[in-house]
Write a structure and sequence with these properties.
The structure is a homotetramer. By secondary structure, the first copy, chain A, is mainly alpha-helical. Chain A has a single domain, classed as Tetracycline Repressor, domain 2 (Orthogonal Bundle), CATH 1.10.357. Chain A has helices spanning 3-7, 11-32, 35-42, 46-52, 56-76, 88-105, 107-116, 131-149, 159-180, 186-204, 207-210, 223-226.
DNA sequence: GATGAATGAGTTTTCATTCAT
DNA sequence: CATGAATGAAAACTCATTCAT
């Protein structure tokens, strides 16, 4: 709530708290997370936390809000309306590539990703107000809508089903990347972008579009040969 | 653990406990779930629980084990090796249809579905032993593998990524159906099976297969025409 | 709530808990009372308390309920309908005397008395359900009503005002007795009964009755001479 | 403590703080009251409070002190020594009437009244220093003493008992008036002054005085006739 | 003179689990 | 077999108070 209070705080302390919180929430979910442990890791006193946030829910929501702000700024920050039929898929893929590069350097985004996996299920009353998820959803929705206007995204599915499916697929891919993160070299990771992105196209592209769907950038070149590396779940 | 003890229990009591547990785990996740509340709802004494199960984790795992047994028996109960190139997709779609019909009558499956959404993240050490998820995974894996043998499932993706994506999509569709359940007539629900199934095919089918992918029973309007989309992907 | 659980408890432990609770509530009021301190004094574990009672409020109400049961049984346990015009005041005075004798021997009643002083003001929602106060009130009300039927209690005041005044006076006298308890010998205490009782008659008696109001038993004999003893506070 | 500091404060801020404090103390008692909530309602910073007052106890005592000052000035502000046998009761009744009129317009007095109900029991060491209660008490005491000198107040009771009883009755009547406030017309309210005042006389008047106790202004029906009740008591 | 930051000890309540019977 | 009693540890959250600026 009292956002300014927290914003005026020493940058280092802020970071330690948010980092600790993100980690705890990511690992144990909202209900399973322990404020005690968050505070212990952050080296902060219990009452200080309550000086800055109203309660556990407020901390959680502030965290997600902040995250989404950063994320949107760095990754999603482009106007769907500016897309054209030609640029649509390439631009999106570029964004995905960008996100991956960021994650490559900054563990924050990894934690954030793991948090998102938890977001579908929150104590009732909170999932409505879960801003990160809502923001991400509406961003995806807008983007898909623009794609439909341009004729590059299919129009034969219920909107919400399409958004849900896309987000689920995105989460799954994220999770997979996270899980196999350490088994891949940075180059392999980048190569996966092409693979992953093609999945989205399969799911969402309009019929006419599909034929030209040779993944434009980077592509999936690690192809055939490298497959077995990943057999281990 | 002490399987026999529990199996010898009055059928009604068993059901009440498992139902209550499934609901609680589904709603709050593993860590957020409260044994107290499970027992309260089931009308069972605390000590009884510990007579039958070793601890919270044991209850959870027994529950998932049992669930998967039922699920496999009623839905997945078919031998992937018996599938042929022609029967592959139709049989699978039949199974999906079957699952939908079951959900129609039995809330158990709904709870089960919600539980599965939680399964990706469990306290460390437990996710290894999460049998429901593993069982479901390995079943899906086997089925996809068979599909690859038959040449109807793509082979250009890491196994685990394909399984993850498929399951995520399945969950998303499940959740969507649950959410929109009351907005649809029974006929519409059945019609959706075709739609949903087509999503799976898009994601997983081998290039050669795609053109012949007429969803057999589904009343999915935009259907037919769009089939050749996948020729090149 | 789960009354039986508590009733089946070792008599000594019960007493220690209730004693400790009564003392704490009496000293600090409902909101100011600390469960920690109650438990510490009673030598009971925190979770045990919650095994027997639902929460702080439940403990408090159970305590008052129990108290009122004992009190009514030993002091108020007489049928107002059985009173006659002649016996009315003497019987009541006898009861007051009885209560004083009990208090003389049992510290429980003293604590109970101090608790009652707090009862008018409780967290909103609880004062309604405060059974001790309500029980005491309705007992007083019934008794006064009977007195009016017999023509020995005035009828020129609003019922509720009369009851409130009577109870307030009763509390004040109780408190006074409690405060000066240790300054008086048991005989002096008994002597005060006459004095105190006369105050009630003054307040409540019907005009016709007052003239005959020479305090029947024990009377106020300590009279003139002994007055200065009590000047302090 | 630091009286001057506080007095130099903006009048509006002062009022808001005292109002908020009075409300909180009245509702939850001294121990149950929360400084945090008082400050929140008053829109004042925590450190400001500690600039003006030493601690919670100091705030409470300053509040009561101030209250009693106002109260004495507006209601009790008369010299008991100036009373005569004839004017004694009429003057007192006038004052009661005055208090009622004030309450009619100013919620402050209502809060004050509710606070007083709490004053009998404070954390040990504080009840001694509770100035409002002591001031009120000593004022009542002085007034009763003067009444005894004039022969219009009974002398057969311990001082402190008489004071306690009188104050308790006053509080009860106050509370009753508060509760039934909205059920009465302004005229009825004024009429009740006579009724209420007669209760005080019954309790406190000397035997010789009772016969002449015509409540001067009160429209109290049953009034007159019942006066000689007290001749003998 | 005035305030936001910070906190340790406290609050009530719930947790999963053990044990004696 | 079955269960009520009992608990230590931890949960989220609030308290009155201090201190550096």
């Amino acid at each position: 709530m009292n956002r300014t209070r927290f914003e005026n705080l020493d940058e280092q302390k802020k970071e330690r708290l948010l980092d600790s919180a993100a980690e705890e929430f990511a690992e144990h979910g909202y209900e399973g997370a322990s404020l005690n442990k968050i505070l212990e890791r952050a080296g902060m006193s219990k009452s200080s936390l309550y000086h800055y946030f109203e309660d556990k829910a407020d901390l959680f929501m502030s965290l997600t809000e902040r995250s989404v702000a950063i994320l949107m700024c760095e990754i999603g920050g482009f106007d769907p309306q500016a897309l054209t039929a030609e640029s649509y898929w390439p631009v999106l893929e570029g964004r995905v590539r960008r996100a991956l590069e960021l994650s490559n350097r900054n563990t924050w985004y990894v934690k954030l990703g793991r948090m998102m996996l938890r977001f579908r299920s929150l104590p009732k009353g909170m999932d409505r107000s879960n801003r990160l998820y809502r923001a991400a959803r509406s961003f995806v929705e807008a983007t898909l809508l623009r794609g439909q206007e341009l004729g590059v995204v299919r129009t034969d599915l219920p909107q919400s089903l399409m958004v849900d499916s896309a987000m689920a697929l995105g989460e799954a891919i994220d999770a997979w990347m996270l899980t196999h993160w350490d088994d891949m070299t940075p180059e392999e990771r980048l190569a996966m972008v092409g693979v992953n992105f093609e999945l989205f196209r399969r799911l969402l592209a309009a019929p006419s579009e599909v034929s030209s769907a040779a993944s434009p950038g980077g592509g999936f070149r690690a192809g055939r040969g490298g497959r077995e590396d990943f057999k281990k779940s």
